[in-house]
Amino acid sequence: IQRTKDDAVSPPNxxxxxxxxxxxxxxxxSDEILAKRREYLSPSxxxxxxxxxxxxxxxxQYLFDDKGRRYLDAFAGIATVCCGxxxxxxxxxxxxxxxxxxxxxxxxxxxxxxxFAQALASKLPGNLKVAFFTNSGTEANELAILIxxxxxxxxxxxxxxxxxxxxxxxxxxxxxxxxxxxxIPQSGVHHAVNPDPYRGLFGSDGEKYVRDVQxxxxxGTSGNVAAFISEAIQGVGGIVELAPGYLPAAYDIVRKAGxxxxxxxxxxxxxxxxxxxxxxxxxxxxxxxVTVAKSxxxxxxxxxxxxxxxxxxxxxxxSYFNTFGGNPVCTAAGLxxxxxxxxxxxxxxxxxxxxxLKERLNExxxxxxxxxxxxxRGMMLGVELVTDRELKTPxxxxxLHVMDQMKELGVLIGKGGYYGNVFRITPPLCFTKEDADxxxxxxxxxxxxx
Length: 450
Ligand code: PLP
What we know:
PyrdxlP-dep_Trfase_major; alpha/beta; EC 2.6.1.44; 5-stranded antiparallel beta sheet
């Protein structure tokens, strides 16, 4: 591996111009907040940066710190702020609804909730039209699993290794990365070999991977399963695209075994992948249950499980209730998000700018042996760092170092993957080509100095 310093690469130019200046910050200093965080917040909080930023304002694809410095946010609150920070239409919808009615339960009728349910159904194919609202992706997946178990009468769930579906009692079982698992029982969950074209056991041969799903059905269950759950692109797992042909073949096997197919669109859904509104559409499948969260509220806690009227009936055998799920302020935000995506053609932008950014990241891959793989779609891109391309040795330290240095240059990105050596680039969908250039220039400069 060539790791000599290359002083010929110059630092990136200034951030693209942006017509907004935050109000002067008059709050407590970062040290004070950090001290409170250490004392009063759970120690489980993730540590990406040596010194976390004190982020005090956000506008579209930018965040501002307490000193008024602007950062290009290419992680978007973990692939969540899809319309951009504080989008005026989303803010207006939230304010308007907050002034009208902040909370209403499922006991009453409310237009904000019904209108959003209808708008969400209109974005989905087939007969996927009945929504249950939740507050998070974890809750949505917990509920999807429950519905599948009730509907099929089976307990067995198949999920993919390296997946992330949440951290609740049931979802932590389906999540399949040791770093996200505490030692709680995960009864009835089977983890299939991950169809990961870069690190997977069978390269990009989707057909070989899918045999494992059949093996699980044959040898790990009574022959009937409740559900198969999968992301269209694994997000937390390090932006892993599934091998071609895998998902339709896996869906066939699961349906023959009486199971339902759950698409976890918490991260890949809502226009993020650019080519389609939902990640599963790129695989040519129609799921039985779709789970949504993150982007759908642009940062406001909102999740949903959407399924067919027939499957939805499974939940009527007992009462099912969620105090905050489908809160009118959140659903008003959800409706505004769908409208902004359409009005500003954000899906098209995710496709065009995302394709351009991927091309530019691939140029870096040609230049630096440290980059083992560039992958993903639209505004869901991954860059995997390895110290040896043949052995694919994860370059964890370099990953952290580059992230930290890019932050100093004004660019925020995420990281993930089992080894923590994959940059996750999931910006707001309004990211521009100029932003993409700035990000790549910052990464180029940082890599050149390793
Ligand atoms: N599913 C996927 C694909 C996710 O990426 C996540 C979170 O990152 C979840 C589920 C859990 O969502 P939440 O953190 O809102 O509970």
